Amino acid sequence: MPYSPSSRHPNRRLAMAACALTAMTLAAGSAAAQPGEWPAKSIRMVVPFTPGGGTDTVTRQISERMATTNRWVIVVDNKPGAGGNIGLDAVAKAPADGYTFGMGQTANLAINPSLLPSMPFNAKTDLLPVALVASQPVVLVVPTDSPWKSLQDLIAAAKAQPGAIKQGLASTGTVGHLAGEMLSFKAKIDVLNIPYKGAAPAVTDLLGKQTHYMFGTPQAVYPMIKGQRLRALAVTSAKRLAILPQVPTVAESGFPGFEAVDWKLIVAPRNTPAALAQKINAAVNTGLQDPAVLKQLQSEGSTPMGGSLQDAQAYLQKEQASWAALIRDAKITLE
User: Fold this and answer.
1) What is this structure's pTM?
2) Which residues are the signal sequence here (predicted)?
3) pLDDT digits 0-9 by tens, 212-247
4) What whole-number distance in Å separates Cα of residue 92 and Cα of residue 109?
5) Which residue in 28, 188, 201, 214 is a FRET match for 42, CA 20 to 30 A apart?
6) Where in the chain are the domains?
7) Beta strands at 139-143 and 230-235: parallel, antiparallel or unpaired
């Protein structure tokens, strides 16, 4: 009988077969891990605020569209607290496997890093910008019986009575707060900030003449504008809002370049594979072309954004630098 290692050594033959099977298993596992097989389970989308707010609403709109179009399962996970820091910290510390994303926005990604003494995560290095979703300005409003008919009227009154004009703040550290600080800094006026725990009490006191003006989100103030209880003097976006076409921008009202918007940006753990981040980016861009999504965003005073991964990265860096400069130059604090 001719010599054959496998026939004379059955254990060696079994070992060789086992090695071959192991190699096949590893190859199959590697293939399953490739981006082409993703997602193999549900995708978690963290919202760092409570249900029902502006960030939550936009997140659910775009998540539903992505899930429907791509036949994905996307679970929206609300993790509120600390101005959005708790939720985004959970995203930053999650496995970078393409199954955890979060909806960041202006305050927790661009304002908080320069305004707060410490952060649980580094907004510049711990998160990967994935997709710009939408932006929304705040609206400068006064009661309808206010003598001020324009932004310049308000500024003239503030200069005539330094420290006497009261600005209501729906909360501190937000775009509404920082828009007010930006206006005070650029217009060189001194006003008294009155902070509140939410938009509802701030609007109530504005209507009750406890304060003189405030910067509010469209969701908070548009119903009152429509009901002729509040008058809009200006919006903080670069262009006028479709729902308030007659209201000028702050930039039009004497402050060229003035812009303060609450943008929404999907982020992921820093080392998330680029190919998977690109899939989410593409899905967002497709979703933003849907007429129903566009109509809903515009009805809320929002403007769709979109763009590439590189666009998201560049925009975030620009916004972080811009807000840091304002906070430094205007000496803004939470006190």
Assistant:
1) 0.86
2) 1-33
3) 999 999 999 999 999 999 999 999 999 999 999 999
4) 12
5) 28
6) 43-135+261-330, 139-253
7) antiparallel
